[in-house]
Amino acid sequence: MKKMRGPMSLYVNEEVGILIEGYEHPPVLMMGHSRRWQSRLCDEIGLTKEKDLFCWRYEADTPFPARVLKAWDDIKRLPEVRLRSIDTSQMQREVEAIMEIYNDAWQGKWGMVPALPDEVRKVAEEMKLIIDEDLAFIAEIKGKPVGMCIMLPNVNEALADLGGKLNPVTLAKLAWRLKVKHPRSTRLMMLGIRGEARSNVKRYGGLSAAMYVEVAKRGVAKGYQWGELSWTREDDAPINLGIRSMGAKLYKKYRVYERAL
Known about the structure:
Elements: E1 3-6, E2 18-21, H1 36-44, E3 48-59, H2 66-77, E4 81-85, H3 91-105, H4 117-130, E5 136-141, E6 144-153, H5 155-159, H6 168-181, E7 185-193, H7 195-198, H8 201-204, H9 207-221, E8 226-233, H10 237-245, E9 249-260
Parallel strand pairs: 7-8
Antiparallel strand pairs: 1-9, 2-9, 3-8, 3-9, 4-5, 5-6, 6-7
Helix pairs in contact: 2-9, 3-4
């Protein structure tokens, strides 16, 4: 062991890093919150920056750029492409497909650890409790899953006034707020496409933009008011540029630290 790095959860799409900008905003689902002094403490004890992670805020009334709308329309017209909602009655199968795409799309990227079978089962059980089927979908080409988009209701918003207590009454409130009323906000947790589809730029080059538009349209149709897109790496210029071009605003930053051992 040569370095220590963190703070990080065992699964990188959960809490990771220390908040360094955006303290005035409460944390969304599976994202952490920090006091202002925590990053100063890390600096003072000799930890150094390894990576900054960006969080983006997208408002429901943000207009789509014309070229992005065209990409969505072009993809929707392709007869072999289908954007289908997650089938929660087949959650284990769906999550297995999602994780296969995840392992392919994020291969070699910073912080990525391949999803294992036990982890897939755990994710399937947890997601089924909170998922909104209209906000999570799989992109298929000729019936094969090649892309996935997972946007989840912001459970933190629904929990905010429950005082940290879960009992039959608060659980009933939580279920009603998630499944009937639903929160005002969401978190776009994962959006990825297999390498084989990404490499066919001529035909499927607009698929990622089309998926962003699709999930935004679905969220607006259900009355969600804003969503957090998190997280992206500071040095992933194409992804950050694409998100910014959709009209999202960078509103939070988290930092992962490291130190030689």
